[in-house]
Amino acid sequence: MKYGIAFGFAGFVITLAGMYYSTGMLDLRFPAVGAGLFGGGILGSVLRRLYKKGEERKANFIFLAVILTVGTPIIAELTIA
């Protein structure tokens, strides 16, 4: 859990720095990307812990749920003309 939080926080800081250097201003919509990175770090940490405990089935179900939740809007956006 500690590594997930650390990498998530680092990703958030890198996102803020990249946003500032690319746009020249701090836009409040951009930190949502950092929050996604932070959440992804925590989720990765949880999945890693589940795999280490031998609960592969539960970890695979969580991974599938995340892929479907993220992938469905992307697919819908790309297929609707």
Task: Walk me through what this model shows.
The chain has 81 residues and is mainly α. The chain has three helices and no strands. It has one domain. The chain is flat.
What is the element layout, followed by pairings?
Blueprint: H1 2-23, H2 31-53, H3 56-79
Helix pairs in contact: 1-2, 2-3
In short:
The protein has 81 residues and is mostly helical. Helix content is 85%, strand content 0%.
Largest sheet: none
**How many individual helices?**
3
Strand content: under 5%
Q: What class would the helix/strand composition place it in?
A: mainly alpha
How many distinct folded domains? Answer: 1
SSE sequence, one letter per element: HHH
Low-confidence regions: none
The percent range for helix content is: over 70%
Cα-based radius of gyration, to the nearest Å = 16 Å
* Straight-line N-to-C gap: 41 Å
The best one-word shape is: flat
- Strand tally is 0
Average pLDDT:
75
What brief labels describe this structure?
flat; 81 residues; 3 helices; mainly alpha; single chain
